[in-house]
Amino acid sequence: MDAEIPGKPPIVSAGNKPAAASTSSFIGAECLPKESSEQARDAWTINFTFLLTGVSEQNDLSALYRAAVSGVTLTALSKFAQSVDMLSSDSMLIKLIGLSGRTIRCRLKIPHERLSSDQSARAIRGALLLDQAVKVIGSLELAEEWMLKPSIGLDGGKPIDLLENSIGGQLVSDLLTRLEYGVYQ
Asked: Antitoxin Xre/MbcA/ParS-like toxin-binding domain: from which residue to which, for each copy (predicted)?
């Protein structure tokens, strides 16, 4: 369930499962309730779509479209990749946006440079799917594990592998929706 705290970016409840340990160093005061504690870290995780775009409402497709057209900054993409363990490898970044980790690191010398509209849209789609997976599955750690394992609902494919194009992304989103409503146990 989405929750908003005045003056803070929107956050998504991560259920009873703790967030991945590697994200704890990235989650700062700007992403947690003011009374941040270990218990708060266990109960909350960042909103990846907001992190990339600054758009607080994930259902505002017009705002997300405008963010993609104007381009996601490499700084935002870097923060997103650092906050998600499965995006730490270059091959995952290639799948997500079509740029290798090496290219991104070289381009980070100009941190306010923006990705192309297509690359931005792919990154935003990945963030939306990760936000959806965290919401449905219960924690970032479990969502990442799920994204990396073969799924019967995807004909044995790994959800992360399907993010290479929009049709695969839609398949992953549809499966998450079915899981949310209990169609697949």
From this structure: 133-182
**pTM metric for this prediction:** 0.73
Q: Which domain holds residue 160?
A: 2-180
- Paired tokens of 175: 């499966």
Structure tokens at 21: 């340990």
**Cβ-contact 81, 74 below 8 angstroms:** no
Beta-carbon neighbour count of residue 166 at 10 Å?
11
Residue 185 domain-assigned? no
Nearest residue to 69 (alpha-carbon basis) of 107, 114, 2, 37: 114
| Residue, of 6 and 164, whose pLDDT is higher | 164
User: 123 CB contacts (<8 Å, ≥6 apart)?
Assistant: 52, 72, 77, 80, 96, 97, 115
- 173 in a domain, yes or no? yes
